Amino acid sequence: MARLAAAALAGTAVEFYDFFVYGTAAALVLGPLFFPTFSPVAGTLAAFGTFAIGFISRPLGSVLFGHIGDRHGRRPVLLLSLLLTGLATVAVGCVPSYDSIGIAAPVLLLVLRFLQGLGLGGEWGGAVLLTAEHAPEGRRGLWASFPQIGPAVGFLLANGVMLALSAGLSDAQFREWGWRVPFWAAGLLAAGGLLLRGSLAESPRFQEIEEPAEVPLAEVVRGHWRLVLLTAGALAVGYAVFYTVSTWALAYGTERLGVSRTVMLSCIMAAVACKAATTPVFALLGDRYGRRPLCLIGCAASALWTFPMVALLETAQPLLMFLGFVGALTAFMCMFSVVAAYLPELYEPRVRCTGAAVGYNLAGVLGGALTPIVATAVSGGSGPPWGVAAYLTGIALLSLGCFALLPETLPARTAAAAATA
After folding, report:
1. 3-state class of 188 per DSSP?
2. Residue 93, CA distances (Å) to 82, 113, 321 in order
């Protein structure tokens, strides 16, 4: 289990590195380089628009790779999704700017971002299922949480490279070629991830399936459509909170508050590191007390913390901004540390790869794709961006309602509830 969890974590970290490095570049440099005819705010919105394309393609990736995972096994998904995302990310670093090739530059950016999202849409389902289906029942939450640490590691890698380049290069050098280096580095990281994953065994639960689903998506739509919609709505707040902190706040802090790139990245990275450290703790609590209670607590905490987080961000003081970010990400992780075990348990094994991945990635569209765009649009006034806090609170309440309608899956709590009834 330790070797399997490490390989799942490493591969997920590489894929999310690829995905996050684009988000950081969108916040810092892609607007002026690829949309130079726009105003600064419009350029940022356009860059975040290309960022959103990756979320829109993620559900398509979950359908494509979910079909492979439910028909042919979880292991092929891990290899193919990592290869696709890695190649697309390296290619982003090679796209000439608008000044060199004109309108073809943002078009290529859109296509490659679409392919990034397609690969990442398959990654989560494969990594989580392979880990969760190997794990012993009493510690499924803990072992399945390791792939959930991968996004934090990927974010820290992506932004660590960006931070080092931003601090070591002049603004002109960073805009000319420095921002491309993290994208090129994705090739080496993807090669390492493929080596780690090449020796993994197939999931025992998949091998027990006597008749794999012919068309997994059709079975999911026909028999589990309500579950897919509820899980998408339930997880939306996690994406919204994370990308508010990691992408919108970075752009807002540097452009509107005048905080340096280095300070903003340092505050956000420190908060993400704290988030990663809490993941196994919440996962253990989920194994003991159930998945659903932690999800409900995380949603409620997110709803309560959005206005304090915006107020702390508005101070432009590093320590206070860090406290705002770490509070928001801790609430987020209270939910997302257990969903890697929770979502697979909600679906039957023959359609699990498709169902869990589609629900998870639809949540990315609802909560991740639109959040930086909406947050940038509603924070254009002269005062504090309270509209961002109101938007996040609304999504948190929506997610809270969806989780309230979902069942518990931890066997001990499910049995206890049945006995009481």
Report:
1. helix
2. 17, 11, 31
- pTM score, two decimals? 0.81
How crowded is residue 274: how many other Cβ atoms within 10 Å of its Cβ?
Answer: 17
Distance of alpha carbon 186 from alpha carbon 84, whole angstroms: 11
**How many residues belong to the chain?**
421
Tokens matching residue 266: 């340092």
Instruction: For residue range 258-297, list pLDDT tens digits in order.
Output: 998 889 989 999 999 999 999 999 999 999 999 999 999 9
- Spacing of C-alpha 60 from chain mean position: 16
Report the distance separating Cα 192 and Cα 186, nearest Å.
10
CATH number at residue 378: 1.20.1250.20
Classify residue 210: in a domain, yes or no.
Answer: no
Q: How many whole angstroms separate alpha carbon 421 and alpha carbon 406? A: 17
Two tokens, residue 212? 């794999």
Is 23 within the bounds of a domain? Answer: yes
Select from 64, 344, 57, 362 the least CA-distant residue to 216: 64
Domain residues for the domain of 6 are 2-205+216-408
